[in-house]
Write a structure and sequence with these properties.
CATH superfamily of the largest domain: Frataxin/CyaY
Strand order of the largest sheet: 3-4-5-6-7-8
Number of strands: 8
Largest sheet: 6 strands, antiparallel
Distance between the termini: 76 Å
Helix content: 25-40%
Structural class: alpha+beta
CATH class of the largest domain: Alpha Beta
Low-confidence stretches: 1-6, 33-40
Shape: globular
CATH architecture of the largest domain: 2-Layer Sandwich
Strand content: 25-35%
Length: 146
């Protein structure tokens, strides 16, 4: 064919890299990505994320359970607060985005960790302040966070 080197042809005349060289290149790319992930500050592992969200959900659950007007259920990482009018406020984790999501009558809110605080990705409001307003508006109950 007139091509020299250790590559091969595949498809309509598409030279392919030597498979050993391609494997070495892929291994190098993985090693570089792993090393970069280890030294990049601010990277939150999935385990760290779950541990932090579990603590947040436990705090919300304990505080909301102290209010007789609210029915609180935490199951499989989803916290449901049922209001006196049977409407619900739902708090859950969004692992791929490393966010906490709140769904309420007033809308959906996404919170991400910034400088040690869970902040709304749009308004910048802190999670507990925002959630207290949502619950007060929807249930008429002011939460005292524990």
């Amino acid at each position: 064919m007139g091509f020299s080197g250790s590559g091969s042809l595949s498809g309509p005349f598409c030279p392919q890299a030597d498979s050993a060289a391609a494997a070495r290149s892929a291994a190098n790319a993985v090693a570089i990505a792993v090393a970069a992930a280890r030294i990049m500050p601010g990277i939150m592992t999935e385990s760290d994320f779950h541990r932090m969200v579990d603590a947040v959900l436990a705090r919300i659950e304990a505080s909301a359970e102290a209010e007789d007007a609210l029915d609180v259920d935490l199951e499989s990482g989803i916290l449901t607060i049922t209001c006196p009018d049977a409407s619900r406020v739902i708090v859950n984790r969004q692992t791929p985005n490393r966010e906490i999501w709140v769904a309420a009558r007033s809308g959906g809110f996404h919170f991400t960790l910034r400088d040690g605080r869970w902040c709304d990705t749009r308004s910048g409001d802190e999670l507990f302040d925002s959630l207290a307003r949502v619950i007060e508006s929807q249930a008429g109950v002011r939460i005292a966070w524990k």
